[in-house]
Amino acid sequence: MQNRTVSVEDRRGSEWGWFLAWLVVGGCLALGLAALPSVGVVLIVLAAVAAVLLLRKGHRTAVVGSLAGLALPLFYLAYLNRGGPGTVCHSTVGGQSCTDEYTPVPFLAGGALLFAAGFLVFLLLDRRHRGTH
């Protein structure tokens, strides 16, 4: 049998992997809440199952990655409304298509705030966790 020790770099890389997994769970949950009338229930159930699996196997401080994941749909909404505010028209094969768009700034600011909060809390918890070992 081999006695393998886990280096600090391996452990830190693994913690970032758990953070990214939780980021995806948070994004899936937020998207499920936004799409509740259509496919939202499926996404929420998928996020719940993934959360249970991650809580059983994963690194506990990485749970704050779900907070950062809540920002992903907000970033997408900011991208979709990038031409706003107001009516935005695009040329199509059959003529012209116009849509009303919101200002992207609130979506971008909310997403940036959630993403930064999740990222910073994870860094603080990771630093505290490393300091105790």
UniProtKB/TrEMBL annotation:
Keyword terms of this UniProt record: Membrane, Transmembrane, Transmembrane helix
Superkingdom of origin: Bacteria
Spans through the membrane: 20-53, 60-79, 105-125
Keyword Membrane attributed: yes
Listed PROSITE patterns: PROKAR_LIPOPROTEIN (PS51257)
Protein's UniProt name: Integral membrane protein
